[in-house]
Amino acid sequence: MAQMKKAAEKAPGKTSAKSAKDTASNAAKEASQAGVADGASLPGKLSNKEYEKELARLHVELVKLQEWAVQTGAKICVVFEGRDGAGKGGTIKALTERVSPRVFRVVALPAPTEREKSQMYVQRYLPHLPAAGEIVIFDRSWYNRAGVERVMGFCTEEQARHFLKGVPLIERAILASGVILLKYWLEVSEEEQTRRLEARITDARKIWKLSPMDLRSYERWYDYSRARDEMFVETDTGVAPWHVVRSDDKKRARLNLISHLLSSIPYRAMPRAKITLPKRQKRGDYREPDYPFKYVPERF
Question: Where is the composition biased (Polar residues) (predicted)?
Fold first, then answer.
């Protein structure tokens, strides 16, 4: 993806949209090939023990980040994007499972209502941006317009191009308000996406994850590739860059993303008073009631 950015910077100022997409597509192909070469040298998959040990260490750091954000009033916004089956949901669960949902808020908006469709496009996302002491995670975001809406025809090409030109200005305004903005793209290969979507078909625990839209999107791999390429050309800016995570290996992807997030925020461990449990009050005249409590059957 760095090659995509480099190619975009070299392109002349009056390059046509088609030319920009072609340039990005070629750069993406080269980056993908380089990524495969890099990935081939990686060791095998992490064992569950190794993964859980490192994740536990990162969870401790995330708690420190939480306390720092609350005490300093920091505002943090994290955007998750990627194809269906790229691992966004699992990564967000790994990121948030040991912290407070009142501080780490996950935002996954449904399809817009008719009223919201008539608004300025980003308007429905703005109320969800973080206030002081909050870390907001967007499970898909305003970049729906650059991806699924554009590819599946839920917006016009003119609307999509208008969004791509305008969103860097909106993100500058978000940053100017004091928000720390991090954007992550989870990159999954064709083969791994197929494997994961097929698993959703055969696993009764995962079938809810597979929607008719997922099936329609699956057919249009290269339309999504072109949309992604142009999105990067237009919105991978110096102040709000995209960070790409190779996600074929879910465990490594989660650890790499959380590690990067922590390294991107200047948090520190905050002073914490030593905690001791107080003594319980004495029983006094309290007696256990003779009441027919309806206990849950103990089958296990």
Answer: 16-26
